[in-house]
Amino acid sequence: MVTESEHTAPGAGQVADDYLTLALLASGLASMLRRRERAGAGQPDDGDGLLPAAWRTAFGRLWWRCHEQGVAPLGNDLDLLALCAHPLAAWPVALSLSDQDLQSSLLVDGELSGLAEQSTRLAPSVDVESEWIENRVYEALRTAASENGGEDGETDRAYAALRRLLIDRPFLTDRDLKKLERQFRAADRHGTTYLRRLIEMAYVARPAQGPQVIIRCVGCGNILADHDSRCATPGCVDQPAESVTVTPLAAIFEQHRATRRFVHDPGLVEARILDRLSASDLSRRVRVTAYPALDTLDVLIEFLRLDGDGTDVVETWGVDAKDQTSPRLLGRMFRWPDTLPCDRHFLVLPHHRARQIGYIADLKAELEGRTDGVEVVDEKRLVALVTDRARRLGR
Ligand SMILES: [Zn+2]
């Protein structure tokens, strides 16, 4: 889950170390990439002609680090930019980051890496185009949910269904959209449905007519360039590609990069948890709510009393699922929402993160003293715990 509260970066004083330098570098890189994109599109430069302030501050911090360590300072900005494409462990200056984070670079194929994107959230002033689009997507999602929902519970249900749409459908045709508009009918005064406004914000439309072959990843459904391309979604290592044929009337909508990186990809673990916990063998004893109280949590699990009419809630667990590159950064940014009372609180990791050596230990070390009573488990362990609890309560 990514909520807006997480976009409020902590003050600089909280992170007086190399993670802040990383955040400033990543934020500076994001600004530079955006400027390059604007220049490429023939749009005027909105900067002052200088390199971004975050970048310059990071350069200064690195200068001091070099000085402390007695290594030659970095020559100029181009040297630093070139370093950003190399793993941090290979930099001439030693940075105090987790071993795992040191294996990452900040740029991959000229774009921000997962670590860099996660780091920008820690920067004192976040100035990232993709982040801005991410917020606009969430705004459109909330509007579409409330316009289609009406009553409180209905809005929650519409929100969960629309959020799930963004997870399940990395692309869709205009024909699919028309079908969905019959389900989500609410429209603005110009007659445009709020669903269409959401899709137009979260996806890019490309003209296409008649049967179209699309190559996608079997694991996550993201579109691939060809059968030999590797899917970049975390957790999709070794997933094969498959071809599907779709038949649009005039357009195919493909998810915007920001939607894919911030809503679709991290949403896959949420979807797996929801599907498993909603399976029929548990449904009599467990009530599962996706994104309850307008996305306060990812999943609310209510254990039901079997005797009686089956609606008595005897225990409530809350789940926040997180699929992030750096456990150190995740630990620093993590807050348990207090507004929804639960008996047990779970920070759930996808299998591909939990199995990385040191990931859970680093995360727990960072959470220590910061959040009390939050249990860190992987997705399989959560399902096992829920199944076991339901069985015991059912006796
Ligand atoms: Zn994939």
Task: Describe the protein in words.
The protein is α+β, with helices and mostly antiparallel strands. The protein has 4 domains: 4-126, no CATH class; 128-210 and 250-255, no CATH class; 215-246, no CATH class; 263-394, no CATH class. The chain is 46% helix and 15% strand. The longest helix has 23 residues, at 18-40. 35% of the residues are buried. Mean pLDDT is 87; it is low at 1-16. The structure holds zinc ion. Zinc ion (ZN) binds at residues 217, 219-220, 222, 231, 233, 236, 239.
Offer a quick outline of the entry:
The protein is 46% helix and 15% strand.
Mean pLDDT, as a whole number? 87
Q: How far is it from the N-terminal to the C-terminal residue, by CA? A: 34 Å
Structural class: alpha+beta
Ligands (ions, cofactors included): zinc ion
Largest sheet: 5 strands, mixed
Query: In which range does the helix fraction lie?
Result: 40-55%
Strand tally: 12
Uncertain parts: 1-16
Instruction: Give the overall shape.
Output: globular
Give the count of helical stretches.
16
Number of separate domains: 4
Q: Order of strands in the sheet with the most strands?
A: 8-9-10-11-12
Rg from C-alpha positions?
23 Å
* Percent of residues in beta strands: 15-25%
Order of helices and strands: HHHHEEHHHEHHEEEEHHEHEEHEHHEH
